[in-house]
Amino acid sequence: MAEKMTRRTFMKGAAAAAAAISLSGVLTGCGGSGQLADDEVQIGPFTVKVFGLDVNLGTASGTDKGAITGKVRLRYDAGGGSWQGGQYGDMFQASVGEAKLKQVSPVGTFFVSDTLLGKPFATEEKDLRLNFPDAEIKEAYLNGQPAVLKIVINGISETLFLVKKNGGYTQTLLPRAFFERVPGAFCRSAQRRKRPFGQFFSPCKEKRHVFHAGFTQA
Fold first, then answer.
1. Is the pTM higher than 0.85?
2. Quick one: how far is CA 184 from the chain centroid?
3. Which of 108, 114, 116, 130 has its CA 20 to 30 A from that of 57?
4. CB-based contact 85:109 (threshold 8 Å)
């Protein structure tokens, strides 16, 4: 969908870009090689990829109200010579608006290793299923309202947005997508730096929400 550009929106975008560029000396990860794909997040030594999204519609009657389905891939790389284990429970915390979805899978424990002999065990791939609490929330997602997916490992979290696009479903790290549309306006690594730049990133978050409306309808 073409985006109408007015003098006001241009000036807002230019101002945000100029402000971000002025901070480029103190913010890292705002460009260059080695960036993650838009369906991945980095949490410490873990890279988590969410892909193959679809919707299970559930049943017309009964308790199965449907679910967001897909795949998740957990990759571990701490530089070699180590391993980690943990629980999948509550690793994928999704919500549509104020409603929380229930993580049905993956479940159980994970074990990953990047030691020389453990390299084949550095990656795990599991099914993802996030159950809708009711038919109303399912319909909201089907009609284009995004699901916010917070991925938590060892108390550290990152966020992906699961959205409907071109008749299908995809996942993206919206701040990066916004950065591509308005160069310099937002950097994904800057999300964690609430101070002393919180006052600057607050309006950027508002611009991100404006972008999201255009992104999901494009």
1. no
2. 20
3. 108
4. yes
